[in-house]
TrEMBL record:
Belongs to the nitroreductase family. SUPFAM superfamilies: FMN-dependent nitroreductase-like (SSF55469). This is Nitroreductase family protein. The keyword Oxidoreductase applies. One of its GO terms (molecular function) is oxidoreductase activity. Gene3D superfamilies: NADH Oxidase. Transmembrane segments: none annotated. It comes from Nakamurella sp. A5-74. Residues 19-163 form the Nitroreductase domain. Keywords: Oxidoreductase. InterPro entries: Nitroreductase, Nitroreductase-like. It comes from the Bacteria. The lineage of its organism: Bacteria, Bacillati, Actinomycetota, Actinomycetes, Nakamurellales.
Length: 213
């Protein structure tokens, strides 16, 4: 049985890449990504917009079983320790949280936002390549910063697992509870819950898409 994403009715009508986006925890542990496979994803991140073109992001890239990957895996939280190592690559994301010494760039307040944009671009590029991406924060951030020599003016923010999705059945025996979670339907807040006009909390007059939940 092939991989199937959990259905999300209200996502229908989006561009297909976004409609098919799903933060899977079931990756094919036999699928390998190389440097040439990752380069377009990182280029997509590089060309993301940022405040004043400050580009306040950095990435620590680990391919499965390389030195970076081996150093990072022990720092995963218990809930992520099974599925993250099965991904083909893990990217640790960082944002510049304070101005570099000697720099006149004053965009640190927007750095985390800009990092998010760059990872979103990376995600869409990955989807275009037939991959899936799962962003997560469950790992020891302080130990990660120490292990990789992260400067004080940079903040370890999240990590991104990248790989080819696998059928949920492939983890059924090893992780039945995780398999059950993967089968849950995706859901999102309705537009009326966060799209406002006039005053905060007053829903804008935007009709919900058919089937919105």
């Amino acid at each position: 049985m092939g991989w199937e994403r959990a259905d999300a009715t209200s996502a229908r009508g989006l561009t297909p890449l976004l409609e098919e986006r799903f933060s899977t925890r079931v990756f094919d542990p036999g699928y390998t990504l190389g440097v040439d496979d990752l380069r377009p994803l990182l280029e997509a991140a590089r060309w993301a917009p940022s405040a004043g073109n400050s580009q306040p992001w950095a990435f620590l890239v680990g391919l499965r079983d390389d030195e970076t990957h081996r150093a990072f895996v022990p720092l995963l939280s218990r809930g992520n320790a099974f599925w993250v190592p099965r991904a083909s690559a893990v990217i640790i994301t960082l944002h510049r949280s304070a101005t570099d010494p000697g720099s006149d760039m004053l965009y640190s307040d927007y750095a985390a936002y800009d990092l998010g944009q760059s990872v979103a671009h990376l995600t869409v590029q990955a989807l275009a390549a037939g991959l899936q991406v799962h962003q997560f924060a469950g790992f020891d951030h302080a130990a990660t910063a120490l292990a990789f020599g992260v400067p004080d003016n940079w903040t370890v923010t999240t990590a991104v697992a990248i790989g080819r999705p696998a059928p949920v059945e492939s983890i059924e025996d090893a992780e039945p509870s995780l398999a059950q979670r993967e089968r849950r339907l995706r859901d999102r807040n309705p537009l009326q819950g966060f799209v406002f006009a006039g005053t905060f909390g007053s829903p804008a007059e935007i009709a919900p898409a058919p089937g919105s939940r």
